[in-house]
Specification:
Elements: E1 5-8, E2 17-23, H1 27-35, E3 46-51, E4 57-66, E5 77-83, H2 86-98, E6 102-103, H3 108-115, H4 121-131, H5 136-146, H6 149-173, H7 183-207, H8 209-213, E7 215-220, H9 227-235, E8 253-259, E9 262-268, H10 278-292, E10 296-302, H11 309-319, E11 325-331, E12 348-349, H12 357-371, H13 381-402, H14 406-421, H15 429-439
Parallel strand pairs: 1-6, 7-9, 7-10, 10-11, 11-12
Antiparallel strand pairs: 1-2, 2-5, 3-4, 4-5, 8-9
Helix pairs in contact: 4-5, 6-7, 6-14, 6-15, 7-13, 13-14
The chain binds guanosine-5'-triphosphate (GTP) and magnesium ion.
């Protein structure tokens, strides 16, 4: 039995409603005392007065009672929808505290929901992340996870590993049983298929990390091609200084914007060229570092000037970054064309002065491709490293299987199951054994 906890669930500040949430074994009794009303019907909105200990009225509120286990925490929960602003809500909390509850610590309602098996760890994580979601698309992924999509994925992968473990155990202990001769080959094939699927999930989650924290997009190019003009055009205001002087931007400038619901961190950089100026050289170094750390590079060139060695060096630099998505763009297409850069390769044509829609379309398409929305996604470092540990153990298990070392195979599969389980809940050995043997009839 846990004590009862209370907190204001809505954000502090002015608003029409403030919700006070109370959870625990005494929640109903406390609600009855503060309302002087005794016949609460679960999940029913009661309009009631809330009373102080001297019987003066604190507020008129909608009170809803969620009877255990059908509540957010799994315990008895009462929600008081008070009038907004913090003063009324605080006086209600203070009265509830007098009646025996204590103040909840940060995240304690969600922790109770997890401890009472209302949600798994991945769902608890998505609640925390959803509150801080930085974009619509991040929120979409997190809501899917909140509804249990990652939990389902983990459970079905775990079940497949459990089945393989059961086969292995039977082979170890019941060698005389009449098992198919090609069992090792079958097990190996099933494990490889699962492994490919898990590895793909890890890779695509890493690729899609930007959905949660924003995609890093750097604009690079030689001086004067219009990088700062492009930043300003994307932001729709004059953030960076633009001038005809080559070398205007000395340091990287980072801003955030949304493109089709994706959060993008866009970085304008110093023009890349050979420079003897000490400060400019530091800026150029930063441009190169920024490009290397980016998810997407916009490499900008000037369509209105003849191709030179500087352009060619930048093209070579892009080739050295074969992992990063690069968009090659010719700017100043409103002027007479002089470059021949686009003879052998694909470039987008834009004019920062008039129209950059071709680039925006391209960015939208790349961001959509990167995130292809329905795949399972691991949204935290904790989830990614747990899945990676599982795939490492599966690799080791696969090797043992090739050598017919079933005991060691079982050991690594067990470790993989343990790593995978940690994504959603603490590993429970008994539960695992029950499940494994309920699926596999040993008849003994
Ligand atoms: N005609 C035309 N001029 C442009 C266009 N884009 C930029 N410019 C001009 O090109 C010059 C250089 O623009 P910036 O945006 O400062 O170039 P930058 O690449 O940031 O230059 P650095 O910071 O020196 O590396 C300015 O005079 C701009 O007005 C365009 O599409 N058409
Ligand atoms: Mg600039």
């Amino acid at each position: 039995m846990r004590d009862s906890i209370v907190a204001i669930a809505t954000a502090p500040g002015q608003g029409s409603i403030a919700i006070v949430r109370l959870s625990g074994v005494d929640a109903l009794q406390i609600a009855q005392k503060i309302t002087q009303y005794h016949t609460f019907k679960p999940r029913y909105a009661h309009l009631l007065s809330l009373y102080a200990d001297d019987n003066t009225t604190l507020d008129e509120a909608i009170v809803i009672y969620f009877k255990s286990p059908h509540s957010f925490t799994g315990e008895d929960v009462v929600e008081f929808q008070c009038h907004g602003g913090v003063i009324v809500a605080r006086s209600v909390v203070s009265r509830v505290l007098d009646l025996g509850a204590r103040l909840a610590t940060a995240g304690e309602f969600t922790k109770r929901a997890y401890l009472l098996n209302r949600i798994d760890l991945s769902q608890a994580e998505s609640i925390a992340n959803l509150i801080n979601a930085k974009s619509e698309n991040a929120a979409k992924v997190l809501v899917r996870q909140l509804k249990g999509s990652l939990g389902n994925f983990v459970n079905s992968s775990k079940d497949q590993l459990l089945e393989l473990l059961a086969y292995s155990e039977v082979n170890i202990d019941y060698a005389e049983e009449d098992l198919p001769l090609d069992i090792v080959a079958q097990m190996s094939k099933r494990l490889s298929t699962l492994q490919q699927h898990l590895q793909k999930t890890v890779q695509s989650s890493k690729r899609r990390e930007g959905v949660m924290n924003g995609f890093k997009v750097s604009i690079i190019g030689k001086p004067n091609v219009g990088k700062s003009s492009l930043l300003n055009a994307l932001l729709d205001y004059n953030r960076a200084i633009v001038s005809t002087v080559a070398g205007t931007t000395r340091d990287t400038i980072e801003e955030e914007l949304y493109i089709k619901g994706y959060l993008v961190r866009i970085i304008d950089t110093a023009g890349i060229r050979d420079s003897s100026d000490e400060i400019e050289s530091i800026g150029i170094q930063r441009s190169i570092e920024s490009a290397r750390e980016s998810d997407i590079i916009i490499a900008l060139f000037d369509a209105s000037s003849p191709t030179d060695d500087n352009d060619k060096e930048i093209i070579e630099f892009l080739k050295s970054l074969d992992e990063t998505i690069t968009i090659k763009v010719l700017n100043k297409s409103d002027l007479a064309k002089q470059t021949d850069l686009d003879q052998n390769s694909n470039f987008l044509n834009i004019s920062c002065k008039h129209n950059i829609s071709a680039l925006i379309d391209k960015l939208e398409q790349i961001l959509d491709d990167q995130t292809c929305s329905d795949e399972t996604m691991l949204v935290s470092l904790r989830q990614v490293s747990a899945m990676q540990k599982a795939t490492d153990e599966i690799d080791l298990a696969q090797k043992q299987l090739e050598h017919g070392e079933l005991e060691l195979f079982s050991f690594h599969i067990h470790a993989a199951i343990e790593a995978m389980s940690s994504i959603t809940k603490q590993f429970d050995n008994d539960e695992m054994l029950d499940k494994m043997f309920s699926n596999f009839c040993l008849g003994k």
